[in-house]
Amino acid sequence: MSDKIKKEKLIIIGGGPAGLTAAIYGLRAGLDPLVLMGPEPGGQITTSPEIENFPGFPGGINGFELMQKVIQQVESFEGRLAYEMVDELNLKQKPYTIKTGNQVYQTDTIIIATGASPRKLGLVREGELLGQGVSYCATCDGAFFKGQAVAVVGGGDVALEEASYLSGFASKVYLIHRRNQFRGTKLLADRLISNPKLEILWDSEVRDLLGDEKLSGIVVENNKTNEKKVLNDVRGLFIAIGYNPNVSLFEGIIELDESGFIKTNDRYMTNIEGVFAAGDVQDPLYQQVVTSAGSGAAAAIEAGQYIDSLL
């Protein structure tokens, strides 16, 4: 780590849709923001097989390609992207201090855009079988299950998209949802229901994972009848039940809501002056690429006005 402290006008923590859009707006406003990209450059949307609801792409676009275009746009404005993770931050007094593995930064203004991470089922062997049949990313791992049966857990857009994507590889796709109707977009749901490779298990939950070193089946229980079913043909289990906000760095420092998301006012500022938040880390309702980008833009505008007020 460098002993020299680098002072910045604006630091953005997170390199997903919210953070990178904030960077674009900050750059155009002459704020020269530094983006600390974190562990997942581009954000978790890079794992989405196809995005059909982002304006400007009538034929759809996969998440990785979309975020590469956004990164290129930031770089076209000579934006500074640091592929570093934040290890520690001190928000007790200004200037605020942010430590990464390579550098110590100080700033009076921060935009937090750390996003969210996949929610787990909480099964006993879930972690043990991760990468051995259990996955949270169909785009990353779907091709490994060509010609085999897989299962997807969830009922929102992400689960529906993953089930549709996996049907291009798998011999059969079980879609397991704990309710009796999907929460996802009707267009996606209608498309799936007519897919001959798909079998929907309504009102059902995964209770157990089978197999020693690799997944060799799952146990599913109907939560209305309590009937259990063993699916011995399942070799891949894709969990798509939502996301938890990435707030471990900020717990006990920044005020969170009852679900653990960062609380902000209507100008995207947290309870700490000069510290803003945008994207999935502060959005418990929508969690869409386009809303994340919009909140990133808004947070950058507000941060710019705040910086101007300090002059």
Supply database-style keywords:
311 residues, alpha/beta, FAD/NAD(P)-binding domain, 2 domains, five-stranded parallel beta sheet, 19 strands, elongated
Could you characterize what this model shows?
A 5-stranded parallel beta sheet has the order 4-3-2-8-19, with helices on one face. A 5-stranded parallel beta sheet has the order 10-17-11-12-13, with helices on one face. The two termini are 31 Å apart. The chain has helices at 17-28, 63-76, 138-141, 157-166, 186-193, 289-310, and strands at residues 5-8, 11-13, 34-36, 80-82, 86-90, 96-100, 104-107, 110-112, 116-118, 134-135, 149-153, 172-176, 198-201, 204-210, 217-222, 228-231, 234-239, 243-245, 275-277. It folds into 2 domains: 5-117 and 243-310, FAD/NAD(P)-binding domain (3-Layer(bba) Sandwich), CATH 3.50.50; 120-239, FAD/NAD(P)-binding domain (3-Layer(bba) Sandwich), CATH 3.50.50.60. The relative contact order is 0.18. With 311 residues, the protein is α/β, with parallel strands linked by helices. The model has no long low-confidence stretch (mean pLDDT 95). Helix 1 (17-28) packs parallel to helix 2, helix 1 (17-28) crosses helix 6 and helix 4 runs parallel beside helix 5 (186-193). The protein contains 6 helices and 19 strands.
How is the secondary structure organized here?
Layout: E1 5-8, E2 11-13, H1 17-28, E3 34-36, H2 63-76, E4 80-82, E5 86-90, E6 96-100, E7 104-107, E8 110-112, E9 116-118, E10 134-135, H3 138-141, E11 149-153, H4 157-166, E12 172-176, H5 186-193, E13 198-201, E14 204-210, E15 217-222, E16 228-231, E17 234-239, E18 243-245, E19 275-277, H6 289-310
Parallel strand pairs: 1-7, 2-3, 2-8, 3-4, 8-19, 10-17, 11-12, 11-17, 12-13
Antiparallel strand pairs: 5-6, 6-7, 9-18, 14-15, 15-16
Helix pairs in contact: 1-2, 1-6, 4-5
